[in-house]
Amino acid sequence: MIGGIHKFYPFLFPDPVDLKKLAHDRRAERLNEEYKLALIDRKITNKVYDLEMELYGKRAAQNKIRLEIFSNRKVDFFA
Per the confidence metrics, is the pTM higher than 0.70? Predict the structure, then answer.
């Protein structure tokens, strides 16, 4: 009390918080983030698989060429 003058401040109540909506929003954000990360992981996994198959095909072709070069054929003996 200053000089006999009373100051009254209004009491403000906080806005009511809907905890279910807040929890739902946070869960939705978390699931969206996990989904984005899963998509990125799936793309990387598919790319690695494609590269492995390409490498497998190239190795198979090299092995086939080696077998053709170093195999003893009957025609080679007669030449």
Answer: no
Strand partners, 2: 5
Per-residue pLDDT reduced to its tens digit, 10-56: 887 777 888 899 999 999 999 999 999 999 999 999 999 999 999 99
Output phi, psi for 24, to 5 deg. -65, -45
Query: Please, which residues have CB within 8 angstroms of residue 65's CB and are 6 or more apart in sequence?
Result: none
Query: Which pair of tokens denotes residue 62?
Result: 């090299």
3-state helix, strand, coil in the chain (%, to 5): 70, 5, 25
Return the half-sphere exposure (C-beta side, CA atoms, 13 A cut-off) of residue 79: 5
Alpha-carbon gap, residue 74 to 72, rounded angstroms? 7
- What's the rounded Cα separation, in Å, for the pair 72 and 37? 54
